[in-house]
């Protein structure tokens, strides 16, 4: 039992809980270890609130690092990160601007790094064609390698073979980066075709993927028509 406490994670000082990210509540938990075990059964549980007097266990889909604005004072509650299901993101609010937050691999600790706004190479070709793939392509001149900013190759765009979901454009950036900006555009030559909304996912191995969230919820970007013409 003591080993499970040691493996599970770290606690913030007593008297604080994470309220806005609770996904499940369970009564009848006389010991904190019971709450930890419940969190272990659910892969999306990243932290817990436990109230000794009530025997109440709350499972959270965020942590105080990913959503610090959700932390509130509580005279009876205890909070713990469940480190066996680590979060891969942390909120930039933890760091002083303009620095950004980057989680350590253990999912329990973070570091603040200087914000970098330089492009990674989708426009200038530093990201190679071999690093770009997609769920499907409409035809030979709509391949994912054409989905670069201001591309003039083929039709100058990537387009999927079907409008049915899910469809995705996948970029292998080889090593870990902090992504602070994403630029999109519509089809060139004033053709009214563009992605109207999208979300981002990231992975360390291209097998297990995690969606980017803001405030505990999936962040979906909506776009308006942006076109360009060849000079």
UniProtKB/TrEMBL annotation:
F5/8 type C domain span: 116-231
Fetch the Pfam families from UniProt: F5_F8_type_C
Under the heading InterPro entries, the entry gives:
FA58C, Galactose-bd-like_sf
- Coiled coil start-end: none
Protein's name according to its UniProt entry: F5/8 type C domain-containing protein
- The species this protein was found in: Exaiptasia diaphana
């Amino acid at each position: 039992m003591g080993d499970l406490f040691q493996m599970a994670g770290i606690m913030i000082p007593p008297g604080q809980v994470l309220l806005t990210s609770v996904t499940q509540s369970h009564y009848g938990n006389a010991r904190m270890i019971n709450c930890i075990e419940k969190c272990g059964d659910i892969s999306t549980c990243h932290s817990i609130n436990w109230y000794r007097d009530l025997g109440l266990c709350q499972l959270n889909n965020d942590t105080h690092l990913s959503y610090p604005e959700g932390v509130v004072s509580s005279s009876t509650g205890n909070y713990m990160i469940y480190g066996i299901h680590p979060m891969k993101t942390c909120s930039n609010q933890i760091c002083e601007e303009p620095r950004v937050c980057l989680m350590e691999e253990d999912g329990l600790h973070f570091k603040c790094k200087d914000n970098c706004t330089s492009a990674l190479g989708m426009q200038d070709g530093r990201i190679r064609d071999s690093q770009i793939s997609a769920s499907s392509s409409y035809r030979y001149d709509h391949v994912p390698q054409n989905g670069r900013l201001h591309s003039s190759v083929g039709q100058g765009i990537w387009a999927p073979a079907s409008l049915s979901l899910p469809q995705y454009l996948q970029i292998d950036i080889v090593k870990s980066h902090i992504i602070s900006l994403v630029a999109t555009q519509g089809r060139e030559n004033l053709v009214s075709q563009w992605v109207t909304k999208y979300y981002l996912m990231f992975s360390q191995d291209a097998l297990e993927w995690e969606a980017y969230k803001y405030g505990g919820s999936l962040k979906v970007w909506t776009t308006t028509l942006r076109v360009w013409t060849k000079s």
